[in-house]
Structures are given as structure tokens and as C-alpha cells.
Amino acid sequence: MLQITNQKPAELSPSATLGVSSSVCATPVDVLEKQIVPQLFQPIQTNQSVSVIDGANPVDEAMIARLLVSELYDEQGETDVTAWLRDYLSQTMLYYQPNMEPIDSTFMVQLASKTGLPIPVNQGNQSIVYTTAIDIIPVAKQYLAGNASLDEWITSLGFTFRIPALTIAMNNDTVFDNFKKYVSQQQSLYQSVLPVETHQSISDFLKISLQHALVEGVKVRNDYADIETETDGSFPRFLQNCISEFVTNHGNECAYVPTSMRELITPTTIVFVNTDFHARETIDQIENTWKDVSGFRQIPMVGLKQLKSLRKSMESQRNMQQQIQSMRGRGLEIAKKAQTKPFGSQLKTRRQLFKIIQKKLEKMEHVARSNNSIKTRKSTFRVPNRREPNNPDKMGIVTNKKYIPDIHVYLDTSGSISEANYREACMVIISLAQKLKTKVYLNSFSTYLSQPVLLDIGNCTKETAWKRLQAVPKVSGGTEFQNVWDYIHQSNKRKSELSIMVTDFCDYPDSNYHRPLPSNLYYIPCGGMDINMLKRYAEQFYQNTVRLDRDLRQKIIF
Question: What is the 3-state secondary structure (H, E, C) of 220-273?
């Protein structure tokens, strides 16, 4: 039974999902936890907090953000989580009603409820369908004439075509031209800090036009995961910020068509709609154009006009679709295999562990400050050549210093870990640190957690590193992973670190523990143990813990 007290019903803002920045919101879960979910935790009585209880278990903002991320990005169909979120949203949102729409359509459901328009349904004898003839051309005309609201037009547009893209409806091509001017102004303002590739992408974007066009769009990412490697100066983030600020300041001329919450957070495609042309074009022209938009989303980095030329060859189009389906099938098969892959009969070598951890580090977002830094050199015309400073044809060199996340090791020193197991674990830690040439934070843990110690073991001999590790106090007792998980959650810095737990897996959470696991925590089996026993413990841990992290299998480096 879900019990919610002292919560002020909320109207969620689509603009709160935009403007992703590594300094503010680096990941989808950050956006949800810091910008969306807090809107659902506004109290009626300001001197009291909002309470969300599921049965006997309290539910916080972080947990709801994790559930939303799982629902939006895993695409596993209807689950118990889906039903739970629908129940939660119906109790916490001002404009929401029970429905069978995916959670990804939450903003569209909100719009329909607010405007009094129906939610599409095709179930049994009940059928509600939005069409071009009834809901696009007439409503666009009514809106432009002042006889329908902007929300009514947006709802009709979103439910008719349902393109999962970041979509912005603009009254006419003049509004879009004004937006391009704003983009150009922002480019000039931040010229010195934007990378060369961003300037090039902006230049390409400024060439597109909504004049005599129903729709135009740009493909900004190949995949949602691309955001993990982006900086604040990347083109997708730059354009997102421009859109957010422009729509906020010109809300009477343009608006989001929030067909997909996921695309609002991490757009792969951005689509601009000319409302004026939707009021004047034929049904066939409008529907064919939106079919083009649907195909446009499947082709990496191809503009909409280029797609139209591709469609002249129907055979090529069919082949392309077949390839896409084949790739999707292989991707699903690989993902399924990765999820169910059994534990092996031997452990990874130290060299294999190093390569895996190195790849994990490379995929993580750079941080503002850490104990580990890398220097990059880039050729550019923005600075003069050192040897020939007066030669404009010679590129200069820009050196940048970037910080990679700190490494934090949590070493299991419970009663089930022998001295030989402990020494083997230490050797693994030393090997990793010396190959990465880095310092590491270290805690030992059992039922207790020691104080963290920063060890410089990556730039010394193995003998010296071993002595430094031996000096770290070893806590004894049973095994409680929860201590480590909660400790990481208590600090934003620790959540941004790459965390490694070296353990024999002799523990798993009880059924009352519902907090999602730290996203950057990986598990390495302790060496020097019977492999079959270690596999049994690892399997027990996985089966009892996977409910807290669907990606857990990939994080156990067996």
C-alpha cells in the first residue's frame, strides 16, 4: 500500500529535463533526482517534509529517480515497476489519470489531463485515435486563429505522430529564424570555450530552414549512452541549453512537444515543427513528411533533406531497414547473453582486470578535481604556432589537463577472509594501481567500515606498496555490504569515484533493503579461494541483489 502525506500535487515542467551539464547534471539519474523528482516532493506544510511509504518501507527521491531511469532506458515492457510508478504519479501529479501509456509518455498524459483531451486507447471495443484530418489541420488552424490553446495543439500533435524525439513546435518559420539568431549569439558569446567540432556543427545547423517546410531536424547523438563521453561544450548540450532558454523566453511562440521523457533528458534527435504549414498543407503531404521523420531517426547523422533523396530508392530503403532490424536483434541477443552469463571456472588475471578497470575509467565522466589527471594535446588554429607565430597556416598546440575519477577500493576483511586471501587481494590492488600509476583510497570493511586512507601505491615498488597497505587497519567481524553502499551514497564525491569491492561475496541484502546500488561500484572476487565455493557465493549474492541493480551481472568481474 503506497501512502503519501504532506505532498503538494505537482505539474511537471518539461524544461526541467533540459540543459544537461556535467557541472550540474551529468547523467539521466542526476537530471531526474535533482530537477524532476524534487517537483514531486514539495510539501503542503512547509515546516514538514513529504513522506512516501511503500508498505513499511520509506521511499526517497533517489530511489524514485532510479526507478524512473530503469523504466525509461531499459525498455522491458510492462513490469511491476511500471504499475508502481503509475500509481505513484497518479497520487502526486496535479494533471494525471490512470492509463496504459508508457511512463515515457508521462508529460503527454499530463497535457491531455490538463486540456481535457482524451488519452489514445485501442483496447477491446474502445478506440481513441488521433488523426491528421481531425486533430492536426483543424487544430493547427484553430490555434493560429486564437480559438484553441497552445496546449491543445501540442497534445494533438504529440498523440498523432508520437515521434520519440526532442520536438519543438514553432508558430512559423520566422520564429525558427529568430531561434537560429539566438544560437548564433550564444556561439559568439562562448566562442573561446567551445571546441572546434562544436563550431562546425553549429555552422551546419544554421544552414537548415523551416521556410516552406513542415518539419526539419538534426540527429545529435547515435545513442543515449553518448552523453557519458560529452563535455559541456559539446554540440548536443550547447543546442539543448539554447532550446531551453529560447522556449522559456518565447513561450507564446513555441513549445515542447513532450512525446518522450527520455528524449527530453538525453535527446538523440531534435525536431522543429512549423505549425503554420501544418494548418495549410494537405493530409498526404503531412503524413508523408512525418514518415520521413520516423526514418530519419534510424539513420546516424543524416539530415532530413538527405533522407528524402534516399527514399527515391525503395530497395535501398528496404535494405537499410533490414540491416537496422538485424543490428537490433544482435544487440538484444548480446545484452541478454551478458545479463545471464554464468560465472566462469577461473578468475580474471591481473592483466585482464587492469584492462577492464581502465575501460570503465575511460567511459566515466571527467571530474572537476581528483588525485588522477591526464594531459591532452590538440592542434588548433585558435592559438599561434610556437615556432612560426606569424604564419596563419600553421596550427598551434593547446594542452589541457583533465581529471579522471578517483579510485576507491573497499577491501573485505571479515572473518571468512584468510590471511592468504587478504594478501592476494592486496596484490591485485597494488597491480591495478601501478599499471594505472595512480593513488587509491582504501577502506577495509566487515560489519564495520574503517576510515578511508589515501595511499600512493601506484608510483613506488611493490614492497613499499605492500608495507603501506599493511599499515591500514583491518576491521574484523561479519560481512555487511550495506555499510559500503550507504557510505558511497552519503557523498557526491564518492558516488563520482570508480569504486571496487574485493570480496568473497559472503553476504547479500535482506528483503527490506530497497536502496539502488551505487552505479560506479564493481565487484572483484577475492583470490586464493576454492573456485566452486566462490561461484556459489557469487551466484547467491547475484540472485538476492539483482533487484537493486539490473546491470549487476556486468559489474561482477568474475
Answer: CCCCHHHHHHCCCCCHHHHHHHHHHHHHHHCCCCEEEECCCHHHHHCCCEEEEE
Give the separation between CA 492 and CA 72, rounded to whole angstroms: 23
Q: pTM of the predicted model, to two decimals?
A: 0.56
pLDDT, tens digit, 9 for 90 and up, residues 532-546: 888 888 888 998 898
Domains delineated in the chain: 2-302 (no CATH), 350-365+405-555 (3.40.50)
Residues 241-266: tens digit of each pLDDT: 899 899 999 989 999 999 999 999 88
Q: How far is CA 36 from CA 20, 43, 151, 289, in A?
A: 12, 15, 20, 33
Residue 380 CA to residue 402 CA, distance in Å, equals: 18
C-alpha–C-alpha distance, residues 290 and 259, integer Å: 14
Q: Is 228 left (phi over 0), alpha (psi -120 to 50) or beta?
A: alpha
Residue 168 in contact with residue 272, Cβ under 8 Å?
A: yes
Amino acid residing at 7: Q
Contact 267, 225 (CB under 8 A): no
CA distance 235 to 192: 14
Contact between 481 and 501 (Cβ < 8 Å): yes
